[in-house]
């Protein structure tokens, strides 16, 4: 899904300035990797970023893509997020946010809004240390995958969470899920 042009421009300017300030030369190839990762909210894998950059820069190497992504991650401009396959996905949204992952097709999307108020920090976490940031990854099945087999439901949540109201686009019904899939009749 393409991001707003203004947000992409803001990210590219910020990432470029941070790279320069850290002493990295902003080569054409690095800039194109920055543009590719900054221009999407689909959390691409490194090889998808490589494919995207190669359309514009045929001489780009996978090594350059990995190094640039590593540099951006080291400077805190992108985060690595685990996907369904274990391959790292790259996220240029540096604001704290939560994710929804479809375990069937790998769709990984930011959740709109701050849902921290929906969460209770488990006592076990408080015993280990002071919690300063909460990132929630909800895993399940996206509407498109659910529509293809008649099931609608995210099937598991990694943290205790209050019941969430979701509407199923496939069946036009509003329903409540806690942590189990539901099949429409
Ligand atoms: Zn899906
Ligand atoms: Zn994200």
3D structure, described in words:
By secondary structure, this protein is α+β, with helices and mostly antiparallel strands. The chain has two domains: 5-91, Winged helix-like DNA-binding domain superfamily/Winged helix DNA-binding domain (Arc Repressor Mutant, subunit A), CATH 1.10.10; 99-183, no CATH class. 35% of the residues lie in helices and 18% in strands. The protein has six helices and nine strands. It has helices at 5-21, 28-38, 46-56, 62-74, 123-128, 143-149, and strands at 79-82, 88-91, 99-102, 108-110, 137-140, 151-152, 164-168, 173-177, 182-183. A three-stranded mixed sheet has the order 4-3-5, with no helix packed on it. It has a two-stranded antiparallel ribbon with strand order 1-2. The chain has a two-stranded antiparallel ribbon with strand order 6-9. The longest helix has 17 residues, at 5-21. The model is unreliable at 153-185 (pLDDT under 50). One zinc ion (ZN) binds at residues 102, 104-105, 107, 141-142, 144-145.
């Amino acid at each position: 899904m393409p991001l707003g042009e203004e947000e992409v421009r803001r990210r590219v300017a910020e990432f470029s300035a941070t790279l320069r300030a850290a002493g990295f030369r902003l080569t054409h190839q690095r800039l194109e990797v920055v543009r590719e990762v900054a221009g999407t909210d689909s959390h691409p894998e490194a090889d998808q970023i490589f494919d995207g950059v190669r359309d514009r820069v045929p001489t780009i190497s996978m090594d350059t893509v990995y190094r640039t992504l590593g540099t951006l991650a080291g400077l805190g401009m992108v985060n690595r997020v685990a996907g369904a396959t274990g391959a790292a996905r790259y996220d240029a949204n540096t604001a704290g946010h939560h994710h929804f992952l479809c375990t069937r097709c790998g769709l990984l999307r930011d959740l709109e809004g701050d849902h921290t108020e929906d969460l209770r920090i488990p006592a076990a976490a408080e015993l280990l240390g002071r919690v300063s940031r909460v990132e929630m990854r909800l895993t399940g099945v996206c509407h498109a995958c659910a529509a293809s087999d008649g099931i609608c439901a995210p099937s598991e949540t990694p943290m205790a969470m209050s019941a969430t109201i979701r509407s199923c686009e496939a069946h036009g019904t509003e329903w409540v899920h806690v942590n189990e899939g539901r099949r429409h009749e």
